[in-house]
């Protein structure tokens, strides 16, 4: 392929935001994909294996992602800490951060051998630390290098190889530039694109700013799917409730929720029914809390710190009476010495007494 997808011009010779690129570079290929209607985004320090255990209790169908795992951490760090995961959590995709094709291929093979269902390449994180490692969103400025990495990974694994990216970076954020980038990766064999519908600023702003302030351009993602229906397109960014999911699923193949789930994990309890039209056993927040308490007891016996185990639970009572009390009770209890899973029992009891009955939740 040359420098990217070539665009045709209209009668005026000008190119609009949504002029279609030349189809000569877009030959449909067979697509192998997980069911991507609903996914939980990879979030650093959030979607560890313990959070995924909680999330899987709430939805049997949502596609879950690991935190981003850098190639350096996997090749030279405690690999088992990243590769261990509970067999009952499938489907689980693993997200890799890196830019060197050979290292990415080695890591992808490790992930495949460990039973993960997908290898996803992080092209969206704009943090300065990630940029210093020459991966994440800054790679959107190096599409040829990304294409080489995709080819290297596909050469050694049979898993789907996907990317998660932004719609652009800095001032390279036109629809034409976005499609150029997608086209180069498509020619390398990538057919699944998870698009955070914001651009990223690479300098001078925080990751939080980049998650919240650049305008959402859902129209870019919708247009991509309309023009190239043989791509699998998943929309990410700004999603907080399932009604939004239904709106976008009329256009794209899937939605990916990030902070909306981390802040309110109970949102997942409606996913199987509302997104997949399947039923699962009825349970309330208290039952989930006690089941997760039992999991914490097992993990504590294996040496996992209680603060890491409790972290995913803070949002369990999001928007419920006593939600602030719940968070404060857990937070204050973690300050003690010789803390055990009993702090979850204590916090659940406080909320239960406040509610007067389980049916309120």
What is the topological layout?
Elements: E1 38-40, H1 49-58, E2 63-70, H2 71-76, H3 79-83, E3 92-97, H4 101-113, E4 118-123, H5 128-132, H6 143-156, E5 161-166, H7 175-187, E6 192-196, H8 207-212, H9 218-227, E7 232-236, H10 242-249, E8 254-257, H11 259-263, H12 271-274, H13 285-301, H14 306-310, H15 323-333, H16 342-355
Parallel strand pairs: 1-2, 1-8, 2-3, 3-4, 4-5, 5-6, 6-7, 7-8
Sum up the structure in keywords:
TIM Barrel; 8-stranded parallel barrel; 12% strand; 2 domains; disordered N terminus; Four Helix Bundle (Hemerythrin (Met), subunit A)
Protein architecture, described:
This protein has 361 residues and is of the alpha/beta class. Helix 1 (49-58) links the parallel strand 1 and strand 2. The termini are far apart. Mean pLDDT is 88; it is low at 1-16 and 19-33. The protein has 16 helices and eight strands. The chain has helices at residues 49-58, 71-76, 79-83, 101-113, 128-132, 143-156, 175-187, 207-212, 218-227, 242-249, 259-263, 271-274, 285-301, 306-310, 323-333, 342-355, and strands spanning 38-40, 63-70, 92-97, 118-123, 161-166, 192-196, 232-236, 254-257. Helix 15 (323-333) runs antiparallel to helix 16. It has an eight-stranded parallel barrel, surrounded by five helices. The protein folds into two domains: 23-274, Aldolase class I (TIM Barrel), CATH 3.20.20; 285-360, Four Helix Bundle (Hemerythrin (Met), subunit A) (Up-down Bundle), CATH 1.20.120.1460. The protein is globular, with a radius of gyration of 21 Å. The chain is 40% helix and 12% strand. The longest helix is centred in the last third of the chain and has 17 residues, at 285-301.
């Amino acid at each position: 392929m040359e420098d990217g997808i070539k665009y045709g011009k209209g009668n005026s010779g000008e190119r609009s935001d949504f002029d279609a690129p030349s189809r000569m570079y877009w030959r449909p290929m067979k697509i192998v994909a997980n069911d991507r209607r609903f996914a939980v985004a990879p979030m650093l320090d959030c979607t560890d294996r313990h959070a995924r255990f909680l999330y899987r209790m709430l939805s049997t169908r949502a596609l879950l992602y690991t935190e981003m795992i850098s190639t350096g951490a996997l090749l030279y760090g405690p690999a088992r800490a990243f590769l261990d995961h509970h067999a009952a959590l499938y489907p689980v995709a693993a997200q890799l951060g890196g830019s060197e094709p050979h290292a990415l291929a080695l890591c992808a093979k490790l992930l495949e051998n460990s039973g993960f269902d997908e290898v996803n390449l992080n092209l969206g994180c704009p943090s300065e630390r990630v940029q210093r490692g020459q991966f994440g969103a800054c790679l959107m400025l190096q599409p040829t290098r990304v294409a080489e990495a995709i080819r290297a990974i596909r050469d050694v694994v049979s898993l789907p190889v996907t990317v998660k990216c932004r719609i652009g970076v800095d001032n390279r954020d036109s629809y034409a530039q976005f499609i150029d980038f997608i086209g180069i990766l498509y020619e390398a064999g990538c057919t699944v694109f998870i698009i955070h519908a914001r651009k990223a600023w690479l300098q001078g702003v925080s990751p939080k700013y980049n998650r919240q302030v650049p305008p959402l351009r859902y129209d870019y993602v919708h247009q991509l799917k309309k023009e190239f229906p043989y791509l699998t397109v998943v929309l990410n960014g700004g999603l907080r409730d399932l009604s939004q999911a239904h709106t976008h699923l009329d256009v794209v193949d899937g939605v990916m929720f990030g902070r909306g789930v981390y802040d309110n994990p109970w949102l997942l309890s409606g996913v199987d029914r509302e997104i997949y039209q399947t039923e699962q056993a009825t349970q309330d927040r208290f039952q989930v809390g006690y089941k997760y308490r039992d999991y914490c007891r097992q993990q504590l016996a294996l040496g996992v710190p209680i603060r890491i185990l409790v972290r995913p639970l803070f949002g369990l009572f999001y928007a419920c009476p006593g939600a602030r009390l719940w968070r404060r009770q857990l937070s204050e209890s973690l300050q003690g010495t010789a803390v055990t899973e009993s702090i979850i029992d204590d916090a659940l009891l406080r909320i239960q007494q406040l509610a007067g009955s389980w049916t309120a939740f």
